[in-house]
Each structure stands twice: as C-alpha cells, then as structure tokens.
Amino acid sequence: MQPVSLHSLSELERVSLQELALYQLQEKLLVGDLSLAKVGPKGSKSIRQKLESFSKEKKDYSPQTFGIPLFQVIANDRAYKQLQETVKSSRRLCLEVEATVTNFRAQMQKRSQLGRSCWMVPCEMFPEEPLSPAFPDHSSSWSQRRGAMSVDSIADLSDNSSKLLEALQLSHPHELDPRRSLGKKKMLSLNPITWQVPRIVDRCCKHIETYGLQTVGIFRVGSSKKRVQQLREEFDHGLDVFLDEHQSVHDVAALLKEFLRDMSDSLIPRELYAAFLSTASMEVPAQLAVLQLLLFVLPPCHSDTLHRLLRFLSKVAQHAKSSWGPDGQEIPGNKMTVSNLATVFGPNILQKEKPGEKDSGAKDFEDSTAIILVVQRLIEHYQTLFMVSPEMQHDILRRLFQTDPDVIDYLLRRKFNTVLSTESEDLTEEHAPTPLSGQALESNSVSSEFYSNISFLNLDVDI
User: What GO terms describe the biological role, i.e. biological process, of this protein (predicted)?
Assistant: First the structure.
C-alpha cells in the first residue's frame, strides 16, 4: 500500500480512522475521556453528544453565516445551493413552456395560411396535429435522470441522507458498542464524502490567491470597516456574493479573519485545545505524529475547512519573499512568512476551551507562543499531516474485518485498481514503451501486494 489522502478514504474507513486515532491519543495520555464541563442540570456531556448535533440540520433555510457553528454554515450553504438549483429549474421550465407555446402558435399560423390558399385540397392531405401545445414531460422519476443520486452503502439509502454527518462524528470508545445501536444500522458509504468547506472560506481564499498574493502586508494592513461590514451582511442575508477585482484584498482578508474569530465553535474544537498545545514542547517527529492523530479525530467539516485554510496559507507564505520576473523586473513579496501567518491566524484557529475565564498574563503569553509554534507546524507540513500511512490503512482494514467483514473485499479491490490506474498514468506520462512481459511482471507485483494484504488480514476472498 501507498500513503493516501485522508479525503480519498471512504466514509466507513474514515469513521474507523477516527476511532483508531482517538484510542492512540488516549494511550499517549494526551486526551482524557473528552467530556465537556457540565451543561445545565443534566451533568456532563460527551464530545460525541455535542458533535452529533452537527447532523441535525434545520429544515427551514436560514442564510446566516457568521457567529454560528461550522456545520450549520455548511448546511445553510447546501440549502442555498438547492434553492438556487430550484430557481434555475423553474426558470428553465418556464423557458421550455414559452418556447413550446411560441412554436405551437407558429405552426397554427402556418397551417391557417396554408388552409386559406388550398381550401380545395381534401383534409386527408394534412397530417393530424394536436389542437393544444405539447408541454415537456417532467414526471419521470429522479432515479432515471442523469446525475441521480447513487450511493454504495452498507444499508439501502432509505433514511435521511443528512446522516452522512452523523456517521462521521467523533466517537467515545464506550459508545462504539454495537449493542447500543441495535435496530439502527448506520449508513456508511463506501465512497469518499463530499468536501465540506463553507462558501465564504473558499471564496475568500480564491480571491486572495487570484488578486492578493503579491500584496505587501496582507492580513496586517488595516481594512475598511464599513466595506467589511457590508460584505458580512451580504453573506448573512444569503446573497450570492462574488468577490472580484473590485473588492479590496485587505477587506476580504479581514472578512476571512472575522469569520474564523466569530465561529461559535472553534475551527479546532476547544475540547482539543490542550492536546494541540501539548505538542509544542515535543521534538518535531513526535510532534507531527501526534498532530496527525489529532487531525484524524476532527469532524469532517472542521477537517476539510482546516485543510483548505492551511493550503491557502502555505500558498501565501510561498510568495513572502521578493522574486524576479522573466523581464528582470522585481516582483515584491507580501512579507507574510509562515511565522507571521501563524501569529495572525493562531488565535483564530486555536481558541481556549473556556474563553470567559482568563488566566494570568504569563500563562496567556505561554499559550500564545505555543499556539504560534503549533499553527506554524500545521502550515509547513499540512500535506503530510493529511496523509494516511500504509500502517494505519492496515489497522483500518483489521478493524473493519471485525465490524464489517462483508466490505473488505470491495475496499481491497478498489485500492488495487487505484494502484493500477496510478501506475498506468505514470507510464503514459513517461512516454516510455515497456515490453509486455515487463508490464505483466509489474502487474504481478501489485497483485502479490493485494494478496499479501488479504493473507495479512486472514481473509478468504474469491478472486
């Protein structure tokens, strides 16, 4: 097996990875039972119970973007997208009806003119035509249309598809007991899940990547509070905000920072704040290993959004220094190094578990230093941190063999086919002719790896 991206894993594999990462973190004593402080009179509330609310999307569309949980922002974006698609579909239907009526009128007018000039011709010479327009038929089922939903899952997709979020939430080990969910078979897809990044985050990042990478002091130079407030209100009212060259890069940068700062749940959940900060005192290899486990534990919407943000910040840092263009002209750098970006974004990404309680100034300074160091590591190594090692993939398959043995064959075949397609693309790119015997030999080596994985798991698979 080769290292694979976290986002290439199927939903089922990703759930298993979360559970494995949580167990390993608890073995390292970096996280406890991950329980929240008392919430009301009901006592403690586990992090799973808190994060399970991510799947309880509101049925009524609310366009709000700022100051609400991240899962709700994504749910609002999804509802907005569905609303837009409904409007487009309605407009398309109106245009089709209008075209049908216009065509019918033209035919009737032509027939009327022809009838006046040839009134002596028998009626049998004219083909029968309908006396009313034939409107397009939209009664066909959605399953017969192109683009209909198709999901490979363990159970049939008969329940609300919003359980996709619930299935991937952080789990407590004692809550993973299958006896707790008798009669409630969760739908866990064998396909990767859709990226869950808020519209505002993606558009702000794309705008700055397009227009602001050479802007000196990006994220540090002041912005227009009035224009930022206007953009904020437009997103909060559900408007389709397009950020183009007319918007100031500094305004968009301030808008992105405000969104992250005002989230009711921190981008990195506050329950993991202490665990992330504890890595600041570790040696780099050990620090990266623990940070990777912590990233695997994150709920998907937080993980995907953090990945998008870190990729963006890494790209900004690559343009920190000045460079020279092909014509010998100097291209100024933005002077935002990884350290500077970590200083600006650290407090917005990592927030304390109890922001209302202030510690001593020395403790705050200590935390601030650790936050900058941790976020700096995340930016520098984000590509490696979001990769799943072959060893961890084997652990995932072992775990699934105990819980869902019927899907192991499918997952192994998919990995095998992915390896073959990747190697085929590499050979095509190299444009180097390879003898047939060599191709067969290479294919046999991959097949042997496939069989070794099966024997390693003690599986009986019919090939």
Answer: positive regulation of intracellular signal transduction; signal transduction
- Specify the higher pLDDT residue, 116 or 433: 116
Using DSSP's 3-state secondary structure scheme, residue 90 falls into helix
d(CA 46, CA 48): 5
Whether residue 120 is contained in a domain is answered as no
Is residue 204 within 8 Å of residue 255, measured between CB atoms?
yes
- The mean pLDDT value of the chain amounts to 75
* CA dist., res. 104 & res. 102, Å (int): 5
- Of 22-26, 413-417, 427-431, which gets the smallest average pLDDT? 427-431
State the total domains in the chain. Answer: 1
CB half-sphere exposure, 409, CA atoms < 13 A? 6
Range of the domain at 247: 4-36+50-78+195-392
Per residue in 243-255, pLDDT (tens digit) is 999 999 999 999 9
- Tell me the HSE value of 421 on the side-chain side, using a 13 A CA sphere: 6
What's the CATH number where 20 sits?
Answer: 1.10.555.10
317 touches 338 (CB < 8 A)? yes
DSSP-derived secondary structure letter, 33: S
Does 221 reside within a domain?
Answer: yes
Q: With contact defined as beta carbons under 8 Å apart, do 348 and 260 qualify?
A: yes
In eight-state DSSP terms, residue 431 is: T
pLDDT at residue 447, as a whole number:
45
Q: How many CB atoms lie within 10 A of CB 450?
A: 19
Tell me whether strands 330-331 and 387-388 are parallel, antiparallel or unpaired.
Answer: unpaired
Are 410 and 190 spatial neighbours (Cβ–Cβ below 8 Å)? yes
- How many Å apart are CA 117 and CA 296, to the nearest integer? 80
Residue 82 reports pLDDT greater than 70: yes
The CA distance from 415 to 461, in Å, is: 15
- DSSP result, 80-141: HHHHHHHHHHHHHHHHHHHHHHHHHHHHHHHHHHHHHHTTTS-GGGSPP--SS--PPP--S-
Quick check: is 266 in a domain? yes
Q: What backbone torsions phi and psi does residue 182 show, to the nearest 5 degrees?
A: -60, 135
Of the chain, the end-to-end C-alpha distance in Å amounts to 19
Residue 398 lies in a domain: no
